[in-house]
Design a protein that fits this description.
The chain is an alpha/beta fold and about 200 residues long. It has one domain: Rossmann fold. Helix 4 links the parallel strand 2 and strand 3. The longest helix has 21 residues.
Length: about 200
């Protein structure tokens, strides 16, 4: 497993991830992300959630759009994937253990790729965004949600060296990965923002 993945911490929290105040925070962010994702791509046929965790966002998308043919999720924490698989009764939702830097899907598979509060945990954000662009069909969209702020710039010098924690840095990575210039959206609190970008 690549470094800085924090898998052990997510493994430990997997079975109670949607519980308590932190669980409510994550589900609220996921609900808002679902709304933005479907405003960006109103009728996707195939959706991928990178860092899918318990599959909550995929379930939210499935309930809002019964016509989605297939919803896939990847997460590096095996217990998260097990919880996601156990929490769905639909044959449209499929989750597997994996990392964004090596997505196990052919080119042009998805209309929509979403990722909610996992971007900061990616070991190689540049490679991960390149993989997201690769698996999107031409004109497909990425909806990426995480903490982005100039307030976080000091962390880039110490604990999060090399990460994209500001809008400017993330925008540059998205364009380098082959996306068109992105659009930024406020989502939840001044720190949690969403960015949408198309191929």
């Amino acid at each position: 497993m690549p470094p800085r993945r924090d898998v052990d911490a997510f493994e430990a929290r997997a079975r109670g991830y949607e519980d308590g105040w932190l669980g409510r925070l994550h589900t609220e962010i996921a609900e808002r992300t679902a709304g933005l994702a479907l405003a960006t791509v109103p009728d996707p046929r195939r959706v991928l959630d990178v860092g899918c965790g318990t599959g909550y966002l995929l379930r939210a998308l499935a309930s809002r759009r019964p016509a989605i043919e297939r919803l896939d999720g990847v997460d590096p924490a095996p217990t998260m994937v097990a919880v996601a698989e156990a929490s769905t009764a639909t044959g449209r939702l499929h989750c597997r253990t994996g990392v964004v830097e090596d997505l196990p899907y052919p080119d042009g598979t998805f209309d929509l790729v979403v990722s909610t509060t996992s971007f900061d945990h990616w070991s190689d954000q540049r490679a991960g965004l390149g993989e997201c662009a690769r698996v999107l069909r031409p004109g497909g969209a990425l909806v990426l949600v995480d903490q982005f702020s100039t307030w976080l710039a000091p962390t880039l010098m110490v604990t999060h060296r090399g990460k994209a924690r500001t809008r400017q840095r993330c925008t540059r990575l998205l364009i380098d990965a082959g996306f068109r210039p992105p659009t930024w959206h406020p989502l939840y609190t001044p720190l949690v923002k969403a960015v949408t970008a198309t191929t």
